[in-house]
Amino acid sequence: QLAKAIALKLSADNLWKMYEATQVDLETGNTERLPELHAVSCCLKAVSTGDAATGVEVCRLACGGHGYLSSTNFLNLYGSATAAVTYEGENTVLYLQTARYLVKVWNQALKGQQLMPTVRYLEQYATKPAKRFAWSDSTPVIIEAFQAVTANRLRLANDHIQQRVKAGRTPQEATNETGLELVHLAEIHCRGFILQSAYAAIEQACQTASQPLGEVLREICRLVVYDEALRITGDLLRFTTMSDPDLVELQRKYEAALGAIRPNAVSIVDAFDYPDFILGSTLGAYDGNVYERLFEDAMKSPLNQESVNRTFELYLKPLMRGKL
């Protein structure tokens, strides 16, 4: 979750740069990149809010029984995160917005037209027969594998739309009936964008960072790339040359990356610099005094205002002595 949060932040920075570049283009009357910006914004909102909601729950579960306490503020965090899945565009609708754009540019690529930067990788797949992508577990190749999966799924979805149109469906009906495929490929496309953005930003940062910091940053990148790859192993086995031994090795590297990050996890969390009043949690305070804060919060309960509640003397003690 920690590595994923950093990757999302870096991809959001990349999106902001796209927005600024598009604004400059608009001043000269150039609107070519507006559809691309819209497509990336839609799917990135869907992925980030969905992952945030899931991430809060993962963190709550990791806290065991403490995660249920109101003082941990998980309730408010989860409520805010899950609300974001719906407001400003429900996530499934946004995925379909991105998917419609991908179908459009795929057909443009079939005609030999040049595509916008974030979807330019589709050109090499649209003009060649479908074949399995050569798998390797290096970070750049895994990112390319996401692009290969997106392209192959897009090829199939587009074919299915055309088949339904030939069977008598309207283009709108055909697209709607292919919705499950479209949502899935839009998400994979977006996750590929996130990984590419994070990888590019981290590699750029490593050029000026110290060697120890650079290694931590690269380990963060490897961790999120391995994690995302393990989420789509079915697609990787289907559309790349990944084998069962490759999958076992990927799992091993993922677990090794978790171990490598663990010694620096607290420092990485602190680097986000969220103050206590924002988190509002007894578990996430700056001083790490978790149990002291839990005890202090428990003492605020009316039932804990006296060392022994009066009901003990009135009811429980006589009952225990058989005098009630």
UniProtKB/TrEMBL annotation:
GO biological process: fatty acid beta-oxidation using acyl-CoA oxidase; lipid homeostasis
Cellular component GO terms held in the UniProt record: peroxisome
Subcellular compartments: Peroxisome
Cofactor(s) required for function per UniProt: FAD
Listed SUPFAM superfamilies: Acyl-CoA dehydrogenase C-terminal domain-like
TM spans (from-to): none
Pathway annotation: Lipid metabolism; peroxisomal fatty acid beta-oxidation
One GO MF term attached to the UniProt entry: fatty acid binding
Keywords (A to Z) from UniProt: FAD, Fatty acid metabolism, Flavoprotein, Lipid metabolism, Oxidoreductase, Peroxisome
Domain Acyl-CoA oxidase C-alpha1: 1-103
Primary subcellular site in the record, as a coarse category: other
Domain Acyl-CoA oxidase C-terminal: 140-320
Similarity-based family: Belongs to the acyl-CoA oxidase family.
Protein name listed in UniProt: Probable peroxisomal acyl-coenzyme A oxidase 1
